[in-house]
Fold each of these.
Amino acid sequence: MKLVSRSYPDHHTAMNAGLATRAGLPDVMAVDLRFLGQFTAGGGLMNLADLAAADGTDLTRVPAFSRAQATTHRGELVAMPTDIGPGSLMYRRDLLQRAGLKEHDLLHSWQEFLRAGAVIKRATGASLLSSAGDLLDIMLRSGLGDGDGLYFDRSSQPSVDSERFARAFELSLQARRLGLDLALTAWSNEWAAAFRQGKVATQMMGCWLAGHLKNWLAPAQAGLWRAAPLPGGAVASYGGSFYAIPKAAANPQAAWAFVRQMVFEQSTQLQSLQVIDAFPALLELHQHPVMDEPLPYLGGQRARQLWRDVAGKVPATPIHKFDALATRVVRDAFEQVMTQGRSIPTVLREANALIRRRARR
Amino acid sequence: MKPSRRWLPYLFVAPFFLLFLVFGGFPLLFSLWLSFHQWEPSEGLGAMRWVGLENYAYGLTDPWLIDALYNTVWLAIAGGLPQHLVALPLAYLIHRRVRRGRDLVLGAYFVPYISSSVAIAVIFATLYSRDYGLINAVLAELTRIPFVGAWLPAQPDWLGDAAYTKPAVAFVVFWRYLGWNLVLYLTAMQTLDNDLFEAATLDGASPWRQFFGLALPLLKPMIFFAITLSLIGSLQLFEEPFILVDSEKGVARSVMTAAIFTYQTAFVDGDYGTASAVAWALFALIAVLTWLNARLFSRGAHA
């Protein structure tokens, strides 16, 4: 077997070019969730459900929500999830204690989350959020049911001018006005420094954030961080990795055998969890004793149990070809509200019209 | 001469033309062909569907393209014009005054032009950093000065706040291409007849008078050439805003140029037809502006 490893954007550009020209394609390609919408739009990938049916592989062994992410509008399963990112609220327990707060003070509702943030700010000087945009991202995902898209409704019409968006925008604006966020860009140098200097009290992200905190963001804060479910009863999944087999693959049978080995074999999935902190897509592994292990960085918390429970509740949200475009338009609208003081209903109406225009093809 | 000899020169130049046709000619023609099609690339070449001029009508009326054109013009003026306003007098100064170490001075100005864009992104992201940047550190010190301080912004987020991103990017463009224009002007000045300047000195013309009355008019062809290059470069501006402001951020649209719009339409949204149409429209715009520029300069030359 030959493994080709490229940088993240190069890889997806190369795969896109490969699919367009039907040349230079691998037998198995890895696809990140962000590019899945773009890749599933065409008909260049094999329907893995057919391959699974042929040899009796039970697809319900991986979460329904991640299968939905890889299912085209024609109902074909064109990619197989290998790892998932159950959403979690990481928080600094020491800062909460200094502010006289408990975990449930953060979680009950979004309003209380912000109220707790004001208390933390007064007592410790730390900010509730690294960016108000994080609050927006997660609030947009709360309250979605199976089959509801993030930006597009069931009939593929943009739903950006809906109540869900208005409320998320309003609360995020409120967080900014109350001075509860640091207005930082995730993964920037300033963002990392803010963690290291203890200026950030909570961060909502995929459970894999714990690995980043432990390894490089804040290794010195071992034992101070804890994981909790997302506030306001929100359940979401952040990111995920998939394997796909191009229709033009030279060895489709071997390719499928490889995907089966990577996804449906307990030992491979367990190894990914232990070596690279990739949360397994294989549901059997969620019942494995490894889920009950205490995590030293999180002060011995058995956090994987929590993430497993989140993974079981994530709604099946279909991916739309124009999700990436809609994300860009919505973030731009958010920027207009935050820095130019434009009215929320107006920017949302404009954003909706723009997405409708762009997504017409 | 044997017939085989007659073909030999063509054989020798063939590699260039072959490479040009494959990597230059074919993509150009293909993108023109593509601009009349709607195409879902992940379905392969068979999925191309003829739509005539629809991509042009659709792409050119996109509200974000209008904004992108405005940004492009803004950055072209703010980043391009100062290059020439500074490079001309600077070239004159170096030409007349700097004798020893001239190559070193020239080299220092030219280094940004040949620096890798990754290095530039790293350096300027550090300089422009809101909390830890040198620029804001200096600003913080300056705000302590009475009167002056009141006029200065407090800790601007240079690459994160739409009010500051354009000037921040324009400065990098200016910094990067100043050396290039300096070299162009200095080369042109070295070809000027020194006798003219000696005669002017004898007639008692001051160095400034010589610059405006003598050097500038004589440099006109080179100024035309340099401005044409700047014009084309500015309208195709992509790299600097792209590497400085993360395109995932909402604020990125404040420095989205027409070229970035085209790139995103193709490689992020997968709409290669519209992107090709916009690219060809942009080419037409550049051609028209270059022609106007030529008209403007040639009329001046005849007067």
Amino acid sequence: MPTGTPKTWASGDAITATLAAAELEAQWNAIYSPPRARLFDINVKTIATQTATTLYTTAGAGNLLDFEEAETATYTGTMLSGPAGAYDGLIAPIDGIYEVSAEFSWVPNIVGQRGAILKQGSTLIDIDLCIPSPNTELIVGPDSNIGDTTMHLSTEVKATAGTKFQVFGTQSSGGNLDTAGFYGSLEIAWIGNYVP
Amino acid sequence: MTLPIPPTYMPNDQLLHGDLNSFNGLKGQQNALFNMPRAKLVFTGSGSNTSGVQPIAATFGAGLGATQYDHSFDGSALVDGSRRGFQIQIPGLYRVQARWSWVDSASAASGLRFLGLYKQFNVFTSAGANIGSPLVGAASAPDAFDWDIGRRVPNNPCTARIDITESFIRGTTLQLGVCQNSGVSLSWVAGIERCWFSIHMESGGG
């Protein structure tokens, strides 16, 4: 598995099929199956003005899909945080450096500002802020939701096993504002070891 | 410094433990896979850049940045000793990301916020030294390798972002440069969510 320590062969070690298979399998897994996971939210989340709120927590059947998850040969746990149908984030399965990214959209509304926050545990690791475009009515395209205001978060961080990543939305429209369905996602991908 | 090269075994070769442990052997190849070069600097101090059209200043001067990690399978370091940026030790394809944020205030409501990525060969500029042409006019880009103009959001930090994947040769140095023309001096916002600079190797070659 990616964090495994490659075997140091000693003089006289027999290169058995078992040992060779384990070492070669570790390489194979490192290349093709590093830990990675993605949450994909298909529901609308209503967020009150000036209240940072965790995304992906609305309970209900089918409101959240575990879009994809790959595991190493030796990691069999889940990277999903929270109960089924109401996941609230992703958990780093092993120590390492992770690429973390997220995106979601707000429904069209031109009042106030929009914010997106990415947290690693209680630590802020990325923030995206913007002012909604007042010209959404001028935008045309194949996507009927193209007038939405989309937030983007991405960074790479070191994390220990068990660290939780979460996305928060915040806005200052003066009232409740909905996220746009079918767009919210959070991804984590292990890219390598780190020396603590 | 190079990536391990798989050995070519001949018929009747006897595998020795030293072959498997070597840099080019199985252990060396696994180390390379698990420990590709990567590093991250975070701005943790205080600093600012003055108003007006001005030369690009190196942002990571000695003592300004904290190294979050600096790791490679061969033990080489990417982070410059004065934390001014990175120097490529192993040629290959690298993903380079950066964020830089400036405070906002009513007195700094105008102008643009510029973040540039600069590459040179075997040259690190000292903090404050010019590493590119001046930002001429409000929107022209100096000779940065990549650059971004941050979106201003009133009463919140303005952040510029860089995210590229590019091949670099050994000895290439990478640094950030910033510039703003609000009319007043603007402070940068310290923290891992606001001002940072990272690099990691995607694959070898180059």
Amino acid sequence: MSGVVIDWYDGHSSRARPAEIGLDPDGVCWLTLDGERRYYALADLRVSDRLGNTMRSIAFPDGSRGETADNDGVDRLLAAHRPAASGWLHRLESRYSAVLAALLLTVLATWAFVAHGVPWLAEQVAEVLPASLDRHLGEQTLAALDEALFEPTALDQAVRDDYRARFAALARGLDAGHDYRLLFRHSPVIGANALALPDGSVLLTDELVGLAKEPAEVEAVLAHELGHVARRHGLRSALQSSLVVLVVAAVTGDLGSAGGLASALPVVLVESGYSRDLETEADLYGRQLMDRHGIPRQAFPAMLRRLAAAAGEGGEGHGFLDTHPSVPERAALFEAPTDRPPRG
Amino acid sequence: METSPRAAHGFEFRGQAGEYFRIWIVNVLLTVLTLGIYSAWAKVRTHKYFYRNTYLDGASFDYLASPIQILKGRLILAAGVALYAGLGYVMPLAQLSMLLLVLLLVPWIMQRALRFRLYNTGYRNLRFHFAGTVGQAYSAMGRGLGITVLTLGFGAPWAAWLRTKYAVDNARYGTSAFSMATRPRHFFIAYYGAFAIMAAVVIVGSLVLSGIMGSVVEGGGKPRPEQVLLIQGLILAIYLPGYLFAWAFSEVRVFNGVINQMQLDEHHFAADMRTDGLAWVAFSSAVAIVLSLGLLLPWAMIRLARYRFDHVRMLPAGELSGFVADQSAQVSAAGDEVGSYLDLDLGL
């Protein structure tokens, strides 16, 4: 059997010397250098894996090394003595059909992980984390919000007491892990709005109270916000964002700054998708709570439309970048004919 | 052997976009399927592909790091990032002190990264290595920080020069030493020039944009969605090329400035990259990457490497076969991983 011509480097200097290697039928490797023959056991040689059409290296146990561009020659030498399984990476990389399958599988696996794996993982992790973490997160967020967005409320004490009583009734018997309380704030910046903090605090702006035509509409909003708290959406969305960043870093990790531009958009898209899912979950939770307390379902979509009108949106349109599902979509959850009696 | 000056050896990059695309997509797939574990193997395969396709005088470079080393580095890094993120929720103050600690470690990280990178670079069965000490790293970066602070930031190019000089002067190939005679002047021209270009782009850009936005607002009421999109598109169309041109300007000045004044023993090097050429490669690549949803990224990486190596030559003083090996210790991958995460790579 003929050998393969290599450049031989002794490992002590950068001088290249022409040499030839080959394998005897019994698996002993010979190296011919300057007309002299040396013998090695095949198991003692480290032959680099094939990688595209790049040079292969054959490392000898004495620190010397052969290099050659004759990839097929090296494969031919090894073929008789190596299990067929080695080199599977190169076979995968050299077939366009395999590459196409890899492309599809990558997209599918990424999608499955991002769409189902990440929310599921975040939920499991949130379950394990102690409630004290929620309290901590809530306190910090409230301090930051008060600084940036809010001013003290201007509502009458009587109005506040009335809503506090309604809130307490809604929150009674939910879960013991949270310390539910209702806070009022005036906010020229964000206008009519309500927010749930992870520790159980629900913030209601004066503007939202003023916008509602009847107390049931405010109660509907409170039920939705309680859904955010009870299902621990604050913690879960924080976990989800961290996981997505990790996924993106894992996929684009080797790509350096070139990936930065291309990876920013998917992160934004994915996170607004998560946000919409959590909103829907809170809507469903709120609907159940409203049913339990005999609050007409109508109140929630009515309030949504008022809020949309106040914000100057038609309520139509459903962009990928929206953090909430569209108003008609959400209203449909409450206005669809009930095919089963509300659960109590 | 003769010692008379010989013909220049051009660096040559032989990577092929189609071939690398297939390697890249298999890397991405296996990384996703193994939840990131394979990324260490992917990194070795990627680096090996680029090093192995870089030729000088008929021989190609080699990347010698082992995936397990890199995996260990990545696990340490991931633990650090998780700890940092966790602290943010529980004890923000501890997070701040951790950040300070990491900042204090930056020179150490840089030294480790350089050591790892060079030690794992081979050529003709000899390793490169890095002889710079941790103390020298602290001295170089400490002086750089001092100059930057005392000059209210105007001396920042000097700090970059100190870092680069530390990196180049301590690089070795076998027993042969690299040295750099580049003056800080080159870095000042590179950084101030890039700043001036960016400032000009921002001024002209905001004049153009305010004119357009003025006419939109005069139209009355809220801008329509398509108008918002148009303005966002214009912002990108003006600032992205402007930014990339400024980046290319400083990159070319630094790269040429360093390479042209660099020596390996008696051997010299020459680089002649051009701002317009590099800016065009970067800009057209960025557009292609975005339009192809990232699929043209491998093509862009090959193109950039080819552009770079097409513009570097070695001017040997004699045969390239006279280099001699040196003994070096095994180095851990942790520094390299943390280094590339913090973008401390000096691109050498």
Amino acid sequence: MNACVSSKVYAFTDWPVCAEGVARIRWQQAVFLRAAFFMVHTQSDVELLARLRAGDHGAFERLVHERIGPMRAAARRLLGNDADVDEVVQDAFLALVRVLSNYRGEAALGTWLHRVVINGALMRLRSRATAEEELPEELLPSFADCGIFLEDQQSWASGPLGEAMRADTAKQVRCCVDRLPVSLRTAVVLRDLEGCSNEETAELLGVTVNAAKLRVHRGRQALRSLLESTLGDCAG
Amino acid sequence: MNCEEYKAALHDYALGKLAPERAAQVDEHRSNCPHCVEFNAICEELLCRDFVQFLDDYVDDSLLPERRAVFERHLSICDDCVNYLESYRRTIELGVESAKPSLAEPQDDSIPSDLIKAILDAAKLEDQ
């Protein structure tokens, strides 16, 4: 599920109530809760929420089975193939359990969980505190002093990159995304794969909108080069 | 040198790849051809480097109309930038498509049963 793209978005009316409970939980959950600014309201969410509040373990189990795949996929896109992925997903479900009693109203639990996972994954990335990888210069276009491309740019229209995507292509694209330096990967994942706006991306990354836009743009350019070299002959 | 030959030679001319006599023909055509005045003006209006620098704003349709018009004029004469723009847009599309659950491979969806059990057990403990 795409957390940021929805046809019907409402302000999160549960937020003031949830805020009262923030002091009782760890600071990580406070950050998780701040993710819930906007929610989608559906009838199935209302019913599901009622069941969860009533302590219906079967409903919770169904929710886990329904949501865990997309949540793991979202966490994996940010964290790579890592044991942290499962911890982030588990933390998100437990965060839901903890806020449930203070959770008044009707919100899209899937959207909320997705956002909590995104926030959790970003927190993990920050806590790793590893040195930022440098972006190889060859992944960005190069220009002559006079400002024109140094190399001819080939059309992708008649090559494999112009075709409808298959599952194996999707896997190769995900591998290329994984190869991006972390700061660019997170920006591209949030902006393009998660469908966040520039403003949402900046907020999630904790940077200015201009800084987020720059990361997204450089990330796209680098991804473009990786796709071109990985997915084969584009010369048509 | 006619206009078509002039336009085709400009890229190599700018990169200094033309033989001296061919470069001199380019210079002569540029100075004397009234038909290429507009083309030359567009060439000088925006560099490929600047086009790429602000490509995200062009794709997001967030450029001011007059600035967008400059980009459009550049695209009308520059095949490299047309191709780069198309590939940039396609990169975004491929990223979006790669995240669709329908394109996830089966093994991507295989959820460890012990993870689900751990979540359910922990949730029950939280409830108590």
